[in-house]
Amino acid sequence: MFGTKRIIGFSALALLALTAQTTPDPHRPAPTLDSTAPALPPLKRPAILIFSKTNSYRHDSIPAATAAIAKLVRARGWSVYTTENAAIFNPAQLARFDALIFASATGDLFTPDQRAAFQKYLAGGRGFVGLHAAGDGSHPAWYQELLGYGGYTGHPGGGDQFQQSQLILLDRSHPATRHLPPRWRWTEEYYAWQAPLRADAHILARLDETGMRLEPKHTMGEKHAMIWWRCEGKARIFYSALGHKPEAFADPAHLKMIDGAITWAARKSGKGCD
Question: pLDDT at residue 9 above 80?
Fold first, then answer.
């Protein structure tokens, strides 16, 4: 009897281990490349594309982010289309959009032709907004260079993953930040990079590291940028590292920042990249 119990117990443990190995992790989807583009509905201009494909870590905030952003766009009377199909990155379909938004899209997302279509789109003077994981270390080097960062070192972990600090606003004239106070208190999973941003990046807000619990690799002092913009030729490129948690996309000040970023990227407000 004792031996039978041991065999049953061992079998149950083995089954649990096998299940753990075969059950997909919703935060780590298997990377895919898309080949068949979606059929687009009628779109009136301005039109915004929200893209949230994840070939690396998938954030739980993506549904809240895409829904909130789409609501902002529709409130302006603009068209919006949301997809995770990277095959939409073709010249004919991208031409129908005034700006692209990466809502925590992660990983190496494109075939060579799709990457070329994306780069050609931007070269035509269009706009891009990247949010949170759209600026993590899973992206290829050419994309990191486009956004203006490189050498992502991660974020605090364990009990220190989410910390409240203050964002110091360095430029409150931009459409994305003109409504924010000089110091904006915010709780976030704060990203860090190995080096300061590209010299041509315009930092709108940086992290105040005072009193924070950060490992040395996550400290950047006064160069710890959180929100910035830059020009890639005539293209307007905007990035914000905020937005890990779903509740970030119910915060009025955060939503107003995103709304300002979208209008700037779509060339409906602000200056730069003429």
Answer: no
